[in-house]
Amino acid sequence: MVNKNSINSSFFYLLSLILLIGIFSLVLVFNRDLYERITYEDRFVEYLGFAFLLIAGLFLISSGVFGYFKKVRKVGVNILLLFIGFVFLIAAFEEISWGQRVLGFDTPDKLLEINQQDEFNFHNIDKKFFDRVVDRSNILFVFFVAIMILLKRDFIWGIRLPDTYLTLAFAIIPFYHQYNQVVLDFYHLLYIPLILFFLRAVMLKKRKELAASLLAIITSLLLIWLHTKYNYHFPDHNNSANEVKETLFSITCAYYAYVIWTESSKMLKGEEKSVKGV
């Protein structure tokens, strides 16, 4: 069963994420210049994303290492955690072009020819592709976890799954989008799990989950309205919404990685006698 303290923490995290989205939205509407400054390359938002990707990677690697040596979970699962952790570390340094602008080294000529932003990184070779991979992966992850929650599964392969509140947090992130006009897109499929969580909360009479799911739906709709109405407030560099969205995603991943790490610590201390697996 999911610990009540963990549930309360996830609920508080969801509220904090929505508050953070609200702050970014207020800055966009009332202080466009500030929004542009903090979302530009090598500014506050990008380094915030770097920091939380790094934190997520370190938590996952720690979970995999301790799990491997202490024989918590199967070997393959711990190796998977290690692998995903290193992917997050690579993503973190990719975000800041491996410190290129801080250290001041030039982009190699061969990479310069194919990199869309002339930087020392690989994700800008085809930024649109990598952005979509992150978005699509997030959406598929939400659907998978939603199914597990409906099936009342808290773990998979000895890894703690996100609870309802953390899943709602992942679900609203893709709605932070620079809209030219409202058209159906892949991420609008997220209304399926959002509505399912709402209906589930109504049927089970879970007031906190009902409030959380309703708040998530309202947040998504407000983002669509706000970003359409104030589309002209987005900076000319046309990447600010993606930068904010990536940072919101990295913060949420860091929190979930912390949840996994905390659960691993409990297992190591023998506080969890058995773990449900798939």
Task: Describe the fold and architecture.
α1 (4-30) packs parallel to α8. Helices cover 69% and strands 1% of the residues. A two-stranded antiparallel ribbon has the order 1-2. It is built from 11 helices and 2 strands, in the order αααααααββαααα. It has helices at residues 4-30, 32-39, 44-69, 75-95, 100-103, 109-114, 127-150, 164-172, 191-204, 207-229, 240-268; strands at residues 155-156, 159-160. The model is unreliable at 271-278 (pLDDT under 50). The protein has one domain (4-268).
Query: Roughly what is the average pLDDT, rounded to an integer?
Result: 84
| Strand percent estimate | under 5%
Number of strands: 2
Give the end-to-end Cα distance, rounded to a whole number of Å.
15 Å
Helix-strand topology string: HHHHHHHEEHHHH
Strand order, largest beta sheet: 1-2
Number of H- or I-type helical stretches: 11
The domain tally reads 1
Q: What is the overall shape?
A: globular
The low-pLDDT segments are 271-278
Give helix % range.
Answer: 55-70%
Rg calculated over all Cα atoms: 20 Å
Largest sheet: 2 strands, antiparallel
User: In terms of structural class, how would the helical and strand content be classed?
Assistant: mainly alpha
